[in-house]
Amino acid sequence: MGSMIHLSVGRLEIDWGKNSGFTDHSGLFQAADVTDVPYYYAGSEYVDAAGKQEWKIRVEKKEGLSKKLSEVSERIELLGYTLNTCRQEFMSLADLNDFDSEVFRFDELHKALATVDVSAIALDYGDGDEDFGEFFREQIFPKLGMEMLPADDARRTLYNAAEGMENLSSHSVLRLLADNPNAADLPVIWTYKDVEDGGWAKHGEFVQPLQPPNKFLIVAEGSSDAAILLHAFRLLRPHIADFFSFVDMEEGYPFSGTGNLYKFVQGLISIGVQNNAIILFDNDAEGVFGHERCRRLNVPGNMRILRLPDIESFRQFKTIGPGGEHTSDINGKAAAIECYLDFGDQGVVKWNNFNEGAKTYQGELVGKDRHKNQFLGQKSRAIGYDYSKIESVLDLIVTNCVAISEAQQIEYLETHF
Prior knowledge:
By secondary structure, the protein is α/β, with parallel strands linked by helices. The chain is built from twelve helices and 16 strands.
C-alpha cells in the first residue's frame, strides 16, 4: 500500500503524497512546531443501525508539524502567495482547464472559502479525510450560484472548474482559507511520520531551516538598528522571524553610517546580488539624505530601499538645543531606531549638528542606549510596554518583503503556465 503523507487544515486535506512522491511543505513550519498530531486510518468494517457497511476510522497520535492557519498565512505571503498571486494562478488554471472565469470568478471562490465552515467536516468522512477536489465539488461549488445557469452550462463549468481546482496549489488554498475567521485558529498539519518511518525520506527533509532563497537580508545603518530589529522580530513576530537575516555583528558592524551603506548598496547592485534585500535607513536628516541617494540608483526588483516610517506622535516631540527647549517635528530629522521604542513621556531629542546634504539639523534621542538596552533585555512581551511604533517598522519591512516575493511568484506563474 505504501506510506501516505498529508497536509491539512483541521480535517480538510489540502495536499497528499505517497512514499517519495510528496511536495515539500517545510517552509510553512518551524522546528518549534513539531508535536504529536492525529493520523487517521481506515479501520475495520462495521455495520451501522441502518444495515449500511462503513469503515470505522482509527486515530493515532504521532509526530508531525502543526501551526495555526493565521500564522501559516503570514509565512505563505512571505513566500509570495498573496491574493494577487492566487488570482494569477486561478486565471492560469482557467485557461488551462477551459472554464469561463467570468462565470466562475475568482472573487466568488475567495468569498466562498472565506465563509465556508471548514470545521464542520465529518470525522467519519470516507477514509478519514476530505481532499480539496471533493470539498470544492460538495461544499464550495454550491455556494457559487451556478444553479441559475442552464443545466448543460452548469455541468460543463462544474466539471472544468473542478478539474482546475484540483490543481490549485496548496499555498493558494491556504491563503484563501486564511481570510475565513472561522478557520484562522484551525491547525495546519503535516503528517510526515509514516513516510519517514517507511524509509522514504529523512527527518531533516521535513523539519529543516527555511531555505536561503526564501530569506531576506536586512541591512540597516548600524549595529543598534540590526540588534533592535532582530530582537523585535523574535519577540513580536516569532512565527516569521526566521525569514529575516541580519549582517553578522560579532566581529563589528561593517556598514555603520549612511555613507558606507550607500557604497554597500552600490556594490550589491554592481555584482547583481541574487539575495532578496531590504536596505533600511533611519528617519533622521542623514537617513533621509542617504535614502534619497540610494533611490536614484538602478535598484533591482529583489531589493527595496526604505527608511523608518513617519510617526504622528513625532510631530510634537520635546527637543533641546542652543535655543532652549521646544516641541518640534522630528520626522526626517532625528527619528533613529531607538525613537521607535517605548520611553513613555521621557523622550527628549537633542539637536547636535547641521546636515549639509539634507539642509536640516540632525538630532539624537537622549539616553538612547538606556532605552535600547531595556528593550533588548525583554524575554517576552512586557505588560504596559507600547510596541506600536516598533510594530510599524516591522510592518514596513514585512510589506516590502511580501511585495518582492509576490512579484517573483507572479513572474514564475506567467512563465510556467
